Amino acid sequence: MVKRKGLSSLINFIGILVLFLVMRSAAANSVSMNTLFIQIGYSIIMAASLNLACGYLGELPLGHAGFMSVGAYTAAVLTTKFLPQTSAVYPLALVCGGLMAAFFAFLIGVPALRLKGDYLAIVTLGFGEIIRVLINTVFSPLTDGGKGLFGIPTYATFTDTFIVTVLCVAALYMIVRSRHGRATIAIRENDIAAESSGVNVANYKIRMFVISAFFAGIAGGIYAHQLGVLTAAKFDFNRSIDYLVMVVFGGMGSLTGSIFAGSALTIVQYLMASLVEYRQLAYALLLIVMMIFRPKGIFGRWEFSLTRLLVRFIPALRGEPKNIDRLNAEAVRPDIPVYEVPADTPVLRTSHLGIRFGGLQAADNVELSLSEGEIVGLIGPNGAGKTTVFNMLTGVYQPTDGDIRFLGRSIVGMKPCEIAAVGITRTFQNIRLFKSMTVLENIEVAFQTRMHDNLADALLRTKRFRRAERGARQRALEILSVFGMQDMADQRADSLPYGMQRRLEICRALAAGPKVLLLDEPAAGMNPTETHELMETIRVIRDKFGVTILLIEHDMKLVMGICERIYVLNYGSVIAEGTPDEIRNNPEVITAYLGKNNPVNEGVGGATC
Amino acid sequence: MKPATFLITFINGLQLGSVYALIALGYTMVYGIVKLINFAHGDILMVGSYVVLFMLTTVFVAQTLLAKIIAVAAAIVFCVVLGIVIDRVAYTPLRSAPRISALITAIGVSLALQIIAQLIFGSEQIKFPEVIINETIFKIGKKPVKSLPIITCIVSVVLMLLLNLFVNKTKPGRAMRAVSEDMGAAKLMGINVNNTISLTFAIGCSLAAVGSVFYAQKVGYVKPLMGSLPGIKAFIAAVFGGIGSIPGAVLGGFVIGMLETFVNYFASEYVDAVVYGLLIVVLLVRPAGILGKPMREKV
Amino acid sequence: MLKVEGLNVYYGAIHALHDVSFEVKKGEIVTLIGANGAGKTTILHTVSGLVRAKSGKVSFLDKDITTTEAHNILKMGLAHVPEGRRVFSQMSVQENLMMGAYARKDKAGIAEDMEMVYTRFPRLRERYRQMAGTLSGGEQQMLATGRALMSRPSLLMMDEPSMGLSPILVSEVFEIIKAINASGTTVLLVEQNAAMALSIATRAYVLETGRITKEGSADALMHDDDVRRAYLG
Predict the structure, then answer these.
(1) Which of A453, A503, B157, C196 is most buried (CB neighbours < 10 A)?
(2) Other CB atoms closer than 10 Å to residue C158's CB: what's the count?
(3) Is the minimum CB–CB distance between A137 and chain B shorter than 8 Å?
């Protein structure tokens, strides 16, 4: 987008420098301005970090102030009791505060993040309260308990707060605009699809929760070293709500929004200091009104970009970097695994596969076998257990009986993300796209297990990170162009017409280079023309991507037209197997589908007409 | 612990447990029918107490028996209307929104109620008049057993039995159960789902209003934030017993009330932490609660 | 009795029903057959008011019910036995049947109909106190049907009553549907099991991917090749 490499970073740096100088001159002669700016600083960090766990990850932590208090007390105890009395230790104290908060978040997150939405919210609320009690009781030798901790050196100045705030927000931005951020948003949008695309959901939830707490801890350290005194009671539920309001108001999923709301609401709080109740009432009503009328918040998921703004007005800046070709050549594509298929081994095979839900045997003694490069159909009346079989093959359900072997290796007991990594991916009956992400991002999420840049690379924007991102984009575009969809790359996934959405889901499933592709009712909702196109698409996929395909379908034209072999399921068991012709004329199958007409007609229309 | 002390503490535990059970019932019924944690429910308790206070200090001059009866009735009516209004205005528009949005709204409602009370009545605590007779009935050893705890328990149990009868044996009660289980199928029976949901809120709020009188008199005062902590604990009780289950809410209420009262005797600083700790343990070990049913998501 | 004209229904971006039109005359058994995913259930959900159509008109007994709420449609005499039965599993058989009569006030009539339902479904009478969730699939189907009958409907809509049932039970259920029709209730039946449905129906419509592709008398369609091809390709 910009003509020179690194120009974007330069623009951002200059912008921040200008802002700094302006603010510094405003704060120079006014103590209250100085204080206000520092308060804005840590409020922004609190809002942005809460946004990571709330807006991006999609959870509702109600105990964020608890992490702030852990950071505050850790930093304060260090500077008052253990570290030498010089402001040089301040950064160290802040980082230690952050790490301690992160540690607490880890302890809390590992059990709590297994819970669903509402419950997670209440549990984090509970932990926030427990932390307060612990600070006042168990840790009181260090923290001076309920009396409050006094005499904290006031190391926080405008300059270092500004720098820390910029660093924290920048770090969060780097994380969010990386494959880790994409994985996080994918979890929020559709955690089951994320898991099936290779995202280790449990792992990421904890990771993001811990990172969010780390920054809250740093904000707490700043707070402590500005105020000079700490009482645990100040870090109560109401404080957590203050930051929640900032996130909701600014936009859940927009760091720009957190910066804006963090600043605006801190200023409001300052101006309304004597009208505390009216401000709180306004906050409460704001929450209600926003949720009903504008749940996205002011900025939704939009991010401000100084570069983008300047490019609009200064055409000279537009263009591509001169070394674009070299950059493209250096890009590192996501891995495409090579599979060794031992001779005479089915690619995927189930033996005596079954599952019992309570009293119901949903699948019983299912024997499937797929050879390399086949297109196999799985059909059967409604409720026969087809999706249940898919769910077992992809690790969403754990079978109670039997085994599943992929290239000779048992995959029973593996999690869906592990199975995706190993080489089996799927699409879903009712489309599970990551709706608010772009077409390209939907595919890029599925590269999770095939990309090797880590979180540090993302934070520091290393060469490895840039090459990996470029490579991911290239590969995703390649996949899209097989289906003629490359021009839709930057559109929102939910803005696509229905047929395209189904295709996108297939693209996503192909992203990780699987060996076996499971399609769950790919033709559902399609008209005859679209179904015909789909048949072609499936053949192309098999030929170009070298995958073996198992599909569930009700549309018999599709099944009979494209499947080389078909399994028929009824009441959870396989009742027939064979070529389309054999199945079409199999009396048991005809009965299972069309029904038997008692008492006179044995099988409708006779066996053949 | 001496036997006399144990007995007194036990009775106090029943008293607190009754209040928690009354409030927990409101949480559980609303969650059962619209899958929403009505964060504002604890604050209904606060509203009820303030209404009684207002009636008995500003509206009536003398605190006669008639005045007290009217005051309590007014509290019930006010809370019922408030509950229905909150549902229709704040929660109904979000019926099909993600659960987190509804929860955030509920938090907003809760805060709004607290602040409005603060603006009208001030943030200091105000002494609550004696509504229910609290005389010593008998003594265990040297310790007196007063009438308030006994009346609290008896009235609460009676109300729970009546609720049970209502839910199981009356038409609107069955409608509530039907809507809780399957909203679509209930519609096909000719049930007006929105009205049934409003009824659920109404019943929950009326129970909270009664509980508010018992609670306010027990602690002796009212203040704007008085509802949050009992509200959360009653919610924990509902979760412990199995959210959505009416017997579960009653069981949970008494367990939490008893636990809190005994822990308070031995180590009062840890009370809140213990109750929260119990919540965390329940959610990790058996999230559906003691009497609840595990749910499975369709893939 | 029931007239549907130009119905278009969307589930999000999916155009589930395209300009669907059909009618059911008094006393008939009309069946909508088609493969799974064709939109049969969507039609019933739209008629009974659980789902709103984007365009089109539904009239019942000459009254426009396109935008009427579901609970009011039931009160007009249009009952819907939904797909998957959806009995209230936490209530007893007796209570479920009482729920069917929720909108009625005539105690004598309700008692009469309860007796009629138990006579028609003797197995329910045996289990009148049993929790509905513990009944077998066939018993639940009977319960759901009986529950719908308790509202004394003039039109009974049934969604895939044969689903998940063994062949013997399927015959039994269809015999009962014939009997219900014989005693004066008009029936609109949605079924995947074309053979059984066509054997008891008066008229039929074939649904393919949200469109009505064929209509005619049940006899005519029973021997029609197109129908078989619509199912098995």
Answers:
(1) C196
(2) 27
(3) yes
Total residue length of chain B: 299
Q: What pLDDT score does A605 carry? A: 35
Please check whether residue A601 touches C, CB under 8 A.
Answer: yes
Decide: A523 and A534 in contact? Cβ < 8 Å.
Answer: yes
- A468 near A330, Cβ under 8 Å? no
Per the domain annotation, does A186 fall within a domain? Answer: yes
Instruction: Give yes or no for A524 touching C (CB within 8 A).
Output: yes
Domain span holding position B110: 12-132+161-285
Whether C169 contacts chain A with CB within 8 A: no
Which residues in chain B have Cβ-Cβ distances shorter than 8 Å to C48?
A: 188
Contacts of B242 (CB under 8 A, 6+ apart): B248, B252, B288, B289, B290, B291, B292, B293
d(CA B30, CA B25): 9
Whole-prediction pTM? 0.86
Q: Which residues of A touch C193 (CB under 8 A)?
A: 594-595
Number of CB atoms found within 10 A of residue A564's CB: 14
User: What sign does the CA torsion over A549, A551, A555, A560 have?
Assistant: positive
Which chain C residue lies closest to B193 (C-alpha atoms)? C71
SS in 3 state form for A44-102? HHHHHHHHHHHHHCCCCCCCHHHHHHHHHHHHHHHHHHHCCCCHHHHHHHHHHHHHHHH
Coil, strand, or helix at residue A551?
strand
Mean pLDDT on B5-29: 92
Decide: residue C134, CB within 10 A, 0-12 exposed, 13-18 middle, 19+ buried: exposed
Find the CB nearest B190 among C82, C98, C102: C102
At B73-107, the pLDDT tens digits run 999 999 999 999 999 999 999 988 888 889 899 99
Peptide bond into A599 cis (omega under 30): yes
pLDDT exceeds 50 at position B193: yes
Question: Pairing mode, if any, of strands C2-11 and A548-552?
Answer: unpaired
Together in a domain, A411 and A557: yes
User: Domain range spanning residue A396?
Assistant: 348-484+500-594
Which residue of chain C has the CA closest to B175? Answer: C99
**Binary contact (B174, C91; C-beta < 8 A):** yes
> Which residue has better confidence, A471 or C164?
A471
Note whether B184 contacts C151, CB cutoff 8 Å: no
Helix (H, G, I), strand (E, B) or coil at C187: strand
Question: pLDDT > 90: what percent of chain C?
Answer: 58
Q: What share of chain C is helix, strand, coil (3-state, %, to 5)?
A: 40, 25, 35
* pLDDT mean over A582-601: 66
Indicate whether A92 belongs to any domain.
yes
Contact residues, chain A, for C14 at CB < 8 Å? 498, 525
Give domain status of residue A291, yes or no.
Answer: no
| Tens-digit pLDDT profile for residues A497-520 | 878 888 999 999 999 999 999 999
Determine the Cα–Cα distance for residues A131 and A144; give it in Å rounded to an integer.
Answer: 15
Residue C214 lies in a domain: yes
Which of the 8 DSSP states describes residue C209?
T
Rounded distance between C-alpha atoms, residue B32 and residue B191, angstroms: 17
CB A354 within 8 A of CB A365: yes
Domain's final residue, options A174, A208, A243: A243
**The CATH number of the domain where A571 resides is what?**
3.40.50.300
* Cα–Cα distances in angstroms (integers) from residue B65 to residues A45, B74, B216, B221, in the given order: 57, 14, 18, 20
